[in-house]
């Protein structure tokens, strides 16, 4: 399949957001990290993903991968999203502004149980921040490009789309002498990132009612 990568700029329609959510809900349907963050509730997966996408639209950069439009394709084919990535540029982080929190995070938090909200606020977010601070240092993540989210629909995975989404921002970063960093939560993903130029800088075991998992912090190889 031929495809194009597009950064979303300007006003975004509800239909565009829903197309991104369709792709990412498919990409993360069996992902343990997404399973835990959405409290093992399939109805909360899209609201969780939406919180990240909205934050990216407001404070970062969102890229989508779409099939190359053809005259022979149906409207649904031409409007379909097959992959997406959310990046935060130097000087910005996810949920670092009131609009991101109000429009992205708080609507998700309003839908989860008090126990799960407590897990997010008192355990997960502090543990996540500690991992990145310990792995990168106190300012590296904030001063460089951070990949917050990336996903490709299963039927189009292992075809170079994820690498292309990374290279899109890597080109920007190299021009301004910035680095890339990210976190991931599976050994399969860890191997992928190693192949595309990242090294693990630290890891930690995170706990939840739905099982423990290891989260890794990575940055580009020197």
From TrEMBL:
Can you say what this protein is called? N-acetyltransferase domain-containing protein
Q: List the Gene3D superfamilies hit by this protein, alphabetically.
A: 3.40.630.30
Which CDD domains has this protein been placed in? NAT_SF
Q: Name one GO molecular function term.
A: acyltransferase activity, transferring groups other than amino-acyl groups
Q: Which residues form a coiled coil?
A: none
Highest taxon of source: Eukaryota
Domain N-acetyltransferase, chain residue ranges per copy? 89-222
Question: Which PROSITE patterns does its entry note?
Answer: GNAT
Q: Which Pfam families match?
A: Acetyltransf_7 (PF13508)
């Amino acid at each position: 399949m031929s495809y194009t990568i597009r950064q979303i700029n300007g006003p975004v329609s509800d239909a565009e957001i829903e197309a991104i959510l369709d792709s990412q809900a498919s990409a993360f349907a069996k992902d343990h990290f997404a399973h835990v963050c959405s409290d093992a509730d399939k109805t909360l997966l899209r609201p969780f993903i939406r919180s990240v996408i909205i934050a990216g639209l407001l404070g970062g950069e969102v890229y989508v991968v779409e099939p190359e439009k053809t005259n022979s394709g149906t409207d649904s084919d031409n409007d379909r999203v097959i992959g997406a990535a959310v990046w935060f540029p130097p000087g910005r982080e996810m949920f670092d502004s009131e609009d991101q929190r109000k429009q992205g995070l708080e609507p998700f938090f309003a839908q989860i149980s008090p126990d799960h909200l407590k897990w997010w606020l008192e355990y997960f977010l502090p543990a996540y921040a500690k991992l990145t601070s310990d792995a990168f240092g106190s300012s590296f993540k904030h001063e460089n490009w951070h990949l917050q989210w990336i996903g490709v629909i299963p039927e189009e995975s292992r075809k170079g789309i994820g690498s292309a989404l990374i290279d899109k921002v890597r080109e920007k970063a190299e021009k301004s002498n910035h680095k890339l960093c990210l976190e991931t939560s599976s050994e399969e993903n860890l191997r992928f990132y190693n192949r595309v130029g990242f090294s693990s800088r630290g890891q930690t075991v995170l706990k939840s009612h739905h099982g423990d998992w290891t989260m890794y912090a990575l940055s580009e190889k020197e």
